[in-house]
C-alpha cells in the first residue's frame, strides 16, 4: 500500500506530537512527584513543629466537628480526641461542663462577629491549667465558619505567677514591717531622693526638729543638723552620694530644744538616693570622758600607793606602771617608753638585781608567763638578794591582760619580832583606860580584862584570874545593881556578841546612883569585847537639857498661840484704818492736798502690807501647828509655774531681772492644794527676785527627778554664808546676812512659810547657797 508523501508527513507529525506529549507528561509527573515529596516533608516538619510547640491548634467547624492533634486529648486528660466539640466533656475527664458551655458560647460569638477571645480553663482529667485563644479561621485556608482554637499550657506560668504573687505579698509584708520598724525607731531616720531633697522622715525625726507632721517637715525641707564647719547636711550627703561611700560624723546640734552630740550617718543607695540616721552619742561621749577621767584619777591614786602596780595588755606589752613599781625595781625611764613586753621587763628587773635568785632563770620566767592564762589570781613570794621580801599578786584582766601588784612585806618580819612588845603595850594600855573592858571567849569564859573592870564591880583580881564563866561572874555582880533584874540584859549582850555575832548595847544603874553605858562588840576570833563607861555626869546633864527643851517647846507653843491671837486682834483696827483711809482718798471728808493724798496712799499701802504680813503669820502659825487646811486636787504643775512667773513678772521687770521658766522637763501633774502650793512657790521666787541685784537672773525649773516632782529656783544673787543659811528657813534672816538689801522691808517669813507648806504636802525644801555664787532652792515632792 502506498502512502503519499503528505500522509507520511502527517504521520510523522502525529508521532512527533505524541512523543513530545509523552516527554512533557513524564517531565511534569516527575516535577509533581518532587513537589509532593517536598510537601510531605514540609508537612512532617510542620507537624513536628506543632507537636513540639508551646501551643496546639484545634479547628472547630461550623457543624461543631473538631480536628486537631492527639496532644489536645492528652492535655485534657482524654484517651483520644473526640469528633465533636460537645464530647470534650466526659465524666471526670476533659473540660468541666460549665467551662465547655462557656467555650461554646464564645465560639458561636466568634463565628457570628469574627471577634477573637481568650479563656482560661482547668482540665478535669489532668493537673494542667490551659489558656485558649480563639479566632475565626480563614475560609479559603480551612473552611467557612470554622474557628481556630490555640491551646496553651499555662500550668508552669500560673504556678510561677502564684509564686510571684506570694513573693510580692511577702515582700509587701516585709516592706510594711520595715516601714513600721523605721517609724517606731527611737532614733531620727530619713531618706533623700537623688536630688538630695527629703522624701520621707520618721516620727523621731519630726519630734527632733519640732515639726507638726512628717509631711510638713518633708515639704519644708527641715534639716536635723545645723551647718558645721561650713558643711551643710546637703553638702555632706552630696559628697557621700558622689563617692558612693557611707559618711559618718559626730556633730553637736539642737534636738528637741536641747544641745546634744549626735552621730550622723549618710548611706548612699546607688540609683535610689541617700538613707540616713542619727544616733544620740551625747551620753556615750560623757561616759567616755568620765571613764578617761576615772582612769586618770585611778592611775594618780595608784601612783600614791605604796605597792608597785604594773598593767599589761593582751599582747603582753606594758601599758602602765606606777612610780612605786619604778622605784621598787629600779627601772630606767627610757625602758618604759618602748612598751616593754612581759619577758623583756623580767629581764630588765633581773639586770637591776630585783628578782629572786633561781637556778634556771629562763624556766622560771616561762613559768611566770603562764600568769596570763590563769583563771584566778595567783600569789607568789619573791625574796630579793638584799633581803627585801616582796609579795606578788598576778590578777588576769577581762581583756586577756594582766595586772601585777607587788607589796613590800619586809617590815612585817620586823613587826612579827616586835609582837611580844606590842602585847605588853596593849596590856598596859588596857589597864590605863577610863572604860572598864573585858573579853569573853566563844564558850562564855572571861579571857582578858583591865583593872578598871575589877574596880567597877569590886571583884578581887585573884577571882578574875580564874577566868570564870559569864553566868558565874554576872551572878556575883548582880547585888550591886539598883535593879538586879538588869543582869539579864548584860547576859543577853554577851551572848549576842559571842554566839550571834551582833553588837548590842544598853544602860544600867548601880545602887550608889552611878550610871554606866555598856556594849558588847563581836571580835574577829569569835570572842566578844564588853565595855562599860561611867556616864553619870552626862546623864545628869541630859536630864537637865531635856527639862529645858520641854520648857522651850512649851514657850514656842505659847508664842505661836500669842501670834495667832494677836494677828486676829490686829485685823479689826486694820480694817477700820484701811476703810477710813479709802474714804479720805475718795474725798468724803473734803478735798485733800497733794501731800494729803500721798499720806493717805502711804496709809493704804501700809495697811495692805501689814494685812499681808498678818495673813503670813497666821498661815505660818497654822502650818507649824499642823492645822492648816489643804484642799488637794490634780494640778498641772507646769501651768502653775507659768502662772507664778506671771504673778511676779512686775517685780522682775521693775528691777530689770531676767526671770526664766523651764518646764520642758515635763513636771506633769500632782495632787496638791493649788492655792497653797502656788503661795509657797511664789514666796520662794519673790524672795529670789528681791535679794538679786538689778540686771541679775532668776531661773524657775520644773521637771521629774528620780520619779519625784522637782522644782528648782536659782538666782545669781549675792548668796548666803553657812550661818545665814541655817537661819534663813527659820524666818530670822536679815538683809545684811543675805549679802545685799531687799527691795522692800520684809518680815523674813516667806521661806519658812514656803517650807512649812511644802512639808504639809509631804515634800521637802532644800536651800544651797554660797557667798558670791547665788542661791538654789530645791523642792522635791513625792
TrEMBL record:
Gene Ontology CC: plasma membrane
Domain Histidine kinase residues, every copy: 565-782
Family matches, as Gene3D superfamilies: 1.10.287.130, Histidine kinase-like ATPase, C-terminal domain, PAS domain
Enzyme Commission number(s) of this protein: 2.7.13.3
SUPFAM superfamilies: ATPase domain of HSP90 chaperone/DNA topoisomerase II/histidine kinase, Homodimeric domain of signal transducing histidine kinase, PYP-like sensor domain (PAS domain)
GO molecular function: histidine phosphotransfer kinase activity; phosphorelay sensor kinase activity
Keyword annotations of the record: Kinase, Phosphoprotein, Transferase
Catalytic activities: ATP + protein L-histidine = ADP + protein N-phospho-L-histidine
Kinase recorded as keyword: yes
PROSITE patterns: HIS_KIN
Alphabetized CDD domains for the sequence: HATPase, HisKA
InterPro entries reported in the protein's UniProt record: HATPase_C_sf (IPR036890), HATPase_dom (IPR003594), His_kinase_dom (IPR005467), HisK_dim/P_dom (IPR003661), HisK_dim/P_sf (IPR036097), PAS (IPR000014), PAS-like_dom_sf (IPR035965), Sig_transdc_His_kin-like_C (IPR004358)
Superkingdom: Bacteria
Pfam family, one: PAS_7
Protein name as catalogued: histidine kinase
Organism: Blastomonas natatoria
Amino acid at each position: 500500500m502506498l502512502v503519499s508523501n503528505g500522509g507520511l508527513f502527517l504521520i510523522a507529525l502525529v508521532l512527533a506530537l505524541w512523543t513530545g506529549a509523552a516527554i512533557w507528561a513524564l517531565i511534569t509527573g516527575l516535577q509533581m512527584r518532587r513537589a509532593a515529596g517536598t510537601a510531605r516533608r514540609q508537612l512532617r516538619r510542620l507537624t513536628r513543629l506543632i507537636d513540639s510547640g508551646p501551643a496546639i491548634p484545634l479547628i472547630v467547624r461550623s457543624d461543631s466537628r473538631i480536628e486537631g492533634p492527639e496532644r489536645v486529648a492528652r492535655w485534657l486528660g482524654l484517651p483520644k480526641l473526640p469528633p465533636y466539640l460537645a464530647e470534650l466533656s466526659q465524666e471526670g475527664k476533659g473540660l468541666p461542663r460549665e467551662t465547655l458551655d462557656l467555650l461554646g458560647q464564645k465560639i458561636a460569638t466568634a463565628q457570628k462577629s469574627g471577634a477573637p477571645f481568650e479563656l482560661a480553663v482547668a482540665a478535669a482529667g489532668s493537673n494542667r491549667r490551659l489558656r485558649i485563644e480563639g479566632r475565626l479561621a480563614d475560609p479559603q485556608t480551612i473552611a467557612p465558619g470554622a474557628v481556630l482554637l490555640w491551646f496553651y499550657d499555662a500550668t508552669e506560668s500560673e504556678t510561677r505567677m502564684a509564686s510571684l504573687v506570694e513573693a510580692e505579698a511577702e515582700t509587701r509584708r516585709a516592706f510594711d514591717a520595715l516601714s513600721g520598724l523605721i517609724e517606731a525607731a527611737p532614733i531620727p531616720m530619713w531618706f533623700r531622693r537623688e536630688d538630695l531633697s527629703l522624701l520621707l522622715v520618721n516620727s523621731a525625726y519630726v519630734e527632733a526638729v519640732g515639726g507638726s507632721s512628717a509631711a510638713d517637715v518633708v515639704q519644708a525641707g527641715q534639716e536635723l543638723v545645723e551647718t558645721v564647719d561650713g558643711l551643710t547636711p546637703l553638702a555632706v550627703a552630696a559628697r557621700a552620694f558622689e563617692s558612693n561611700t557611707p559618711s559618718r560624723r559626730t556633730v553637736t546640734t539642737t534636738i528637741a530644744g536641747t544641745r546634744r552630740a549626735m552621730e550622723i550617718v549618710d548611706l548612699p543607695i546607688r540609683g535610689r538616693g541617700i538613707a540616713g540616721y542619727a544616733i544620740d552619742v551625747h551620753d556615750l561621749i560623757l561616759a567616755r570622758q568620765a571613764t578617761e577621767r576615772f582612769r586618770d584619777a585611778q592611775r594618780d591614786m595608784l601612783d600614791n600607793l605604796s605597792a608597785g602596780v604594773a598593767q599589761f595588755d593582751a599582747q603582753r606589752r606594758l601599758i602602765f606602771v606606777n612610780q612605786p613599781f619604778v622605784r621598787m625595781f629600779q627601772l630606767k625611764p627610757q625602758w618604759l617608753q618602748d612598751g616593754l613586753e612581759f619577758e623583756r621587763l623580767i629581764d630588765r628587773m633581773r639586770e637591776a638585781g630585783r628578782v629572786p635568785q633561781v637556778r634556771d632563770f629562763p624556766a622560771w620566767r616561762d613559768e611566770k608567763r603562764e600568769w596570763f592564762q590563769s583563771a584566778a589570781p595567783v600569789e607568789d613570794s619573791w625574796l630579793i638578794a638584799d633581803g627585801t621580801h616582796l609579795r606578788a599578786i598576778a590578777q588576769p584582766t577581762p581583756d586577756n591582760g594582766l595586772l601585777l601588784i607587788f607589796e613590800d612585806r619586809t617590815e612585817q618580819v620586823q613587826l612579827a619580832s616586835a609582837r611580844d612588845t606590842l602585847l605588853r603595850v596593849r596590856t598596859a594600855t588596857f589597864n590605863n583606860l577610863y572604860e572598864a573592858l573585858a573579853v569573853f571567849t566563844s564558850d562564855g569564859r572571861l579571857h582578858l580584862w583591865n583593872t578598871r573592870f575589877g574596880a567597877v564591880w569590886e571583884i578581887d583580881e585573884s577571882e578574875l584570874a580564874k577566868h570564870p564563866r559569864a553566868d558565874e561572874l554576872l551572878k556575883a555582880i548582880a547585888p550591886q545593881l539598883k535593879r538586879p533584874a538588869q543582869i539579864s540584859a548584860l547576859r543577853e549582850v554577851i551572848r549576842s556578841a559571842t554566839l550571834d555575832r551582833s553588837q548590842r548595847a544598853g544602860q544600867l544603874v548601880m545602887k550608889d546612883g552611878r550610871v554606866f553605858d555598856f556594849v558588847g562588840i563581836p571580835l574577829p576570833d569569835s570572842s566578844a569585847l564588853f565595855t562599860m563607861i561611867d556616864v553619870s555626869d552626862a546623864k545628869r546633864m541630859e536630864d537637865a537639857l531635856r527639862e529645858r527643851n520641854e520648857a522651850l517647846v512649851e514657850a514656842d507653843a505659847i508664842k505661836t498661840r500669842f501670834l495667832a491671837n494677836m494677828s486676829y486682834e490686829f485685823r479689826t483696827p486694820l480694817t477700820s484704818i484701811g476703810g477710813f483711809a479709802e474714804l479720805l482718798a475718795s474725798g468724803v471728808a473734803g478735798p485733800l492736798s497733794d501731800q494729803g493724798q500721798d499720806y493717805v496712799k502711804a496709809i493704804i499701802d501700809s495697811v495692805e502690807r501689814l494685812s499681808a504680813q498678818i495673813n503670813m503669820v497666821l498661815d505660818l502659825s497654822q502650818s507649824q501647828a499642823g492645822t492648816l487646811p489643804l484642799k488637794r486636787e490634780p494640778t498641772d504643775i507646769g501651768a502653775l509655774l507659768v502662772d507664778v512667773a506671771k504673778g511676779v513678772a512686775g517685780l522682775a521687770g521693775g528691777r530689770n531681772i531676767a526671770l526664766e521658766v523651764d518646764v520642758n522637763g515635763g513636771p506633769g501633774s500632782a495632787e496638791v492644794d493649788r492655792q497653797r502650793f502656788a503661795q509657797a512657790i511664789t514666796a520662794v521666787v519673790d524672795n529670789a527676785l528681791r535679794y538679786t541685784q538689778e540686771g541679775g537672773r532668776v531661773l524657775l525649773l520644773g521637771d521629774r527627778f528620780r520619779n519625784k516632782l522637782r522644782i528648782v529656783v536659782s538666782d545669781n544673787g549675792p548668796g548666803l554664808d553657812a550661818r545665814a543659811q541655817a537661819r534663813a528657813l527659820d524666818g530670822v534672816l536679815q538683809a545684811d546676812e543675805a549679802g545685799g538689801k531687799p527691795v522692800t522691808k520684809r518680815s523674813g517669813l516667806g521661806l519658812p512659810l514656803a517650807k512649812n507648806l511644802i512639808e504639809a504636802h509631804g515634800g521637802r525644801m532644800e536651800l544651797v547657797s554660797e557667798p558670791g555664787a547665788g542661791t538654789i532652792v530645791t523642792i522635791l515632792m513625792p
